[in-house]
Amino acid sequence: MLRRRIIGAIPVLLGVSFIVFFLMHLAPGDPVNLLLGDAATQEEVERTRREWGLDQPLVIQYWEFIRRAAVGDFGVSLRYGAPVSTLVFERLPATLELAFASLLIATIISLPIGVYSAIRHNSLWDHSGMTLALIGVSLPNFWLGIMLIFFLGGQLNLLPVAGRIEYGIDIHPITHLYLLDSLLTGNLAGLWSAVQHLLMPAVTLGTSLAAIVTRIARSSVLEVIRQDYITTARAKGLSEQAVIWKHTLRNAMLTIITILGLQLGALLSGSVITETVFSWPGVGSLLIQAISTRDYKLVQGVIFFFAVMYFVINLLVDLLYMWADPRIRL
Fold first, then answer.
1. What residue ranges do the domains of the chain occupy?
2. How far apart are alpha carbons 296 and 179 in whole angstroms?
3. How confident is the model at residue 330 (pLDDT cuts 50, 70, 90)?
4. Is the distance from CB of 84 to CB of 297 less than 8 angstroms?
């Protein structure tokens, strides 16, 4: 199965790279002129084009990109003058930390509400939970982020509004995940500062995800709880807690795992706006900077990375299926 999935991912990644490459080159704006400025002479512009290979036909440029990407070389960023892979992996820990914190917040909020809403179907709790879920899924991330900055950061001065860590606090880099590194090194000041900086962007990203998972969890549990084997479990004298958490939720987990996996991929790639709003130094904000300067190689590298992450997450979801339902191994 693993070999088939990897082989099947190749045409998908090629298609993504093809679309991104040609769309970037169709977009208005010249990266060389943006880099050199209006004062550059025509000779300097032409020389820079030759140095970066931008004078070649698009087909040749695309083939060169694919040839290098096959061995993990995405070229050198036009703006930063550093390897694209280095820039991406420097920013990756910040994006991963934000995505997993958002996923954790969403899961802690959504599963209890979704399950309890299904158990108390058509009750006041059920209607209230679904109303909150509808509001949560309707709020744009950028608006919610700005409101949190305005009230919690500006008016109440409770949380910092930008960055990952307070200036002057050093964290010894081990995994480059500030929360984990602070715990491993016993740096309580760094841990508290990292939590404060992470809270608002994580809540911003996790709110819409929590709303989606709440609705999915409620629907899945409602479908399972009406099955005959649940009635049989109750007839055998099992406690309601055992029926819900051992039999009902376990069988409803396939749908929930699917949506959590897909949304984790969406968090990684969809954190672009949130990272920009909170000046979070992740891959998403790097992508915005690359697009604004027409840094072709950097944009292609970041999008290619997001596509690979989607593939890896989907593969992990398939593996989790076997844990949730052992029959899938057959």
1. 2-69, 90-329
2. 33
3. very low
4. yes
